[in-house]
Amino acid sequence: MEKEGNASNLFSSSSDLNCRLFRPNWENSVDQNDPFESALSSMVSSPTASHNNNGDNIVLRELIGRLGSICNSGEISPFNNNSANTSCYSTPLNSPPNLNLMRESGSNQFLSLPTFSPDPAFPERAARFSCFANTNFGGLSEIPPKLDPTKIPPPSVQENWESIPAPEKNFMASRSSTPDNAADSRENSTVSEQIPIPENGANPRKRKSAPKGKGKDTAVANVSASENSESSGKRSKSEEEKANQKASKDNSKLPEPPKDYIHVRARRGQATDAHSLAERVRREKISERMKVLQDLVPGCNKVTGKAVMLDEIINYVQSLQRQVEFLSMKLTTVNPRMDFNMEALMSKDMFQSRGSMYPSDGYPFQSPCGNEAPFPPSHGRNQRPQMENFADAASQVSSFWEDDLHSIVQMGFGQGQMQNFQGILPTSQMKVEL
Amino acid sequence: MNIQPPNSSSIKSRFAVKFVQAMKRLSKRRGMGDRYKRYRATRAAARVSLAAAVGPERAWSRAVLRRIKKRRGLIGRTTTNPRRNLRGLVPGGKGMDYCSLLSETAHYITCLQAQVQVMQDMLHLSSP
Q1: How close B95 comes to chain A (CA, Å)?
Q2: Scanning every residue of chain A, which has its alpha carbon at the shortest distance from the alpha carbon of B51?
Q3: Nearest residue of B to residue A321 by CA position?
Q4: Would you call B66 an interface residue with chain A, using a CB distance cutoff of 8 Å?
Q5: Which residues contact B76 (CB under 8 A, 6 or more apart)?
Q6: Distance of CA B39 to CAs A36, A312, A329, B35, Å?
Q7: Fewer beta carbons within 10 Å, N or C terminal of chain A?
Q8: Helix (H, G, I), strand (E, B) or coil at A287
């Protein structure tokens, strides 16, 4: 493949340059990186980017950008600006200086520039370019910049990768295995990369969809967890779509995220990323709400699965509504005796929650005075003028009880919902005076 | 996006006030005897009082209040009418997306529970 040749050429040609640039200056700041970057760019641009290259470059840029965001948030932009995606390939495998450079400078460019294995392994990897671009390279690009300064990586890449401290160690371990797995199938390499991906690996999702809102952390966690559990890299697109469509209403939630995430990576789709991310966010929201509902509905703790939960919720809501109906039916028969209900009701509610109610303890509502007759009429009288205006306007059209309903609404809005209880206070004081 | 869970006691007090007043008004009406109409009116009053107590901050209460204003078939709603569908049960559930439907259902369940408690208390108080 021409890519192999290009890559190897780049590698061989850039190694000298890297030696020159890095060895003396690898402790320095970004300035040193720029000449290197430009040199790399020039090197990179010389091998003509074929269409395949471009496509892969886009993918690589994407993957690198995503994974580079583990370290910093601003990494991708410089990387993209450089258009030096292919510089990743050409980055020489002087791993210690490169990695140290990344570490010290913290520059975005070098963060995203992966280091290749030494010469013998590189052509082999280059031979696997297609899958490399999709999978291995993504793994390579996961090299985080934040290397432990104390740990100077040994020359070999594998060891470099392994020496990287804890959060990225998983990446490194996987990556070290990727050269070995270069000869393996695409799926396996995908698996080996993705299994140890920590939650940070899904940060690009978080970053990309930051405006998408909350629930992202759980989405990220689920994504990483799902990756760990998923072993197959190849899924049919239709299968995923079916899963997504099903996810909305019912059935289990767990199998879908793994398919979704793995599928995204395998399909190297950027547009679908947004969709699947949105789907994931939505699914996370739905599962959140379902958990809340599960707490509300009694007897739902043992139930798992959305469909059964939904049935339980529906049953519960129906039973509550039927209960209200039944109680209202009973209340119609006892209606006449409701005059003294108010204060007793209020006292009951107040006993249940002291803090939220009106704080006054010596409030007449709690007094044993059962003569509440003055209260409602006075209160009703206050409201009646307003209500009657409204009722007169509407009485021609509607049945009589709807006027009552409207008055219920009017009453509340007139007093203000939050102050409904306090609105009664002055009238009850009137009662006391009486 | 999640609004605060409802404060049960405040809803209970507000609902109790409104509902009792509605019931009083209902009892004073001469047009209804001990009939099915009174029952339906009571049921409607309960529903409306709950929605009014909740206020316009929730989609389902807004839907209920809207129905009153439009003078649609609020009275005719029975619990057997809606199918086995959450959208049919929660007021205003037809025009919502699934996520908000679930959150509205949660709030609605809380309010229904408060309503049931208040009405039970009223029953126990009125006929000890």
Answers
A1: 16
A2: A409
A3: B79
A4: no
A5: none
A6: 85, 28, 5, 7
A7: C
A8: helix
